[in-house]
Amino acid sequence: MEVIILPDPGRIGSLAADAITALIARKPDAVLGLATGSSPLAVYDELVSRYEAGQISFRQARGFTLDEYVGLPADHPERYRNVIDTAFAARVDFAPGAVRGPDGLADDIPAACAAYEAAIRDAGGVDLQILGIGTDGHIAFNEPGSSLASRTRIKTLTRQTRVDNARFFGGDLDQVPTHCLTQGLGTIMEARHLILIAMGRSKAEAVHHLVEGAVSAMWPATVLQMHPHVTVLLDDAAAQRLQLVDYYRETYRAKPAWQGI
Ligand code: F6R
């Protein structure tokens, strides 16, 4: 696991965008794993700027979102399928239907989850997955207690996650759905490269567990310690509880430029 601490969201966004730009240059039909939420917004903004400058095209690429609320109407602005369009997908040149998400309105939820797993598999798997992390250590919506081998399925959101996300629903907790469909930890672990972004002090405890804690379903993101290619991009506030913070900074300063992330 590589830990990189950068001073601002712009630097974080541009480093992650460099990795995506390099991937698309060598594999134009790459499969991207797209997180919603606030953490990846700087990455998406940077990719949109590069697209507008003619430096990158997503015409042949495909995208899979991580998760979806259950039961939000198709036109609800906080439905993650709409959120990803607003934040990124509709601002660049993905082909129609190239970005998919789990179907939170399906009548048959288990069948929809199985179909989502099959779609990811049929696309050849995710080449590069962007992740955020919840204050309770979730990735996607794999809340504490999630099986480390889990696949796409329905989950109940913790109260903490609903409180955290109430800001997207006018601050009204009652408007935040109680259930979601989410890629499992086992699903996410099959992506070839994972880039997790965390910013702000509220993420510091979860980041401490993710990077330096024991692998445990109580802090689901810790499963990433078992993945061979994970890049964790942090701002100073999110890094403030890391024991080896000086070592991570020195390592990155001394890293040969050719290595990339
Ligand atoms: C969203 C997702 C969640 C978020 C996490 C952090 O698709 O998968 O795990 O990444 O809740 O959210 P933000 O970035 O809004 O702090």
TrEMBL record:
Alphabetical keyword list: Allosteric enzyme, Carbohydrate metabolism, Hydrolase, Isomerase
Gene3D superfamilies: 3.40.50.1360
Classification via InterPro entries: Glc/Gal-6P_isomerase (IPR006148), Glucosamine6P_isomerase (IPR004547), Glucosamine6P_isomerase_CS (IPR018321), NagB/RpiA_transferase-like (IPR037171)
The enzyme's E.C. designation: 3.5.99.6
Record-annotated site: Part of the allosteric site: S146, R153, K155, T156
Active-site residues, Swiss-Prot/TrEMBL: D67, D136, H138, E143
Catalytic reaction annotation: alpha-D-glucosamine 6-phosphate + H2O = beta-D-fructose 6-phosphate + NH4(+)
Pathway(s) annotated for this protein in UniProt: Amino-sugar metabolism; N-acetylneuraminate degradation; D-fructose 6-phosphate from N-acetylneuraminate: step 5/5
Highest taxon of the lineage: Bacteria
Annotated GO biological process: carbohydrate metabolic process; glucosamine catabolic process; N-acetylglucosamine catabolic process; N-acetylneuraminate catabolic process
Regulation: Allosterically activated by N-acetylglucosamine 6-phosphate (GlcNAc6P).
Enzyme class: hydrolase
Function: Catalyzes the reversible isomerization-deamination of glucosamine 6-phosphate (GlcN6P) to form fructose 6-phosphate (Fru6P) and ammonium ion.
Protein name in the entry: Glucosamine-6-phosphate deaminase
Family per record: Belongs to the glucosamine/galactosamine-6-phosphate isomerase family. NagB subfamily.
Domain Glucosamine/galactosamine-6-phosphate isomerase, first and last residues per copy: 16-226
